Amino acid sequence: MRRVIFNQKGGVGKTTIACNLAAFSAAAGQKTLLVDLDPQANSTQYMLGNKADSLELTLADYYKETLSFIWFPKEVGAYVHATPIDRLALLPADEALGELMSRLESRFKIGKLKDALDQLGGYDAIYIDTPPAFNFYTLSALIAADRCLIPFDCDDFSRRALYRLLDRVREVQQDHNRDLNVEGIVVNHFQERANLPRALVSELTEEGLPILQTRLSNSVIIRESHQNATPLVNYAPNHKLTMQFRSLFHELNGEDENSPFTI
Question: Which residue in 34, 207, 208, 223 is deepest, having the highest Cβ count within 10 Å?
Answer without folding.
Answer: 34
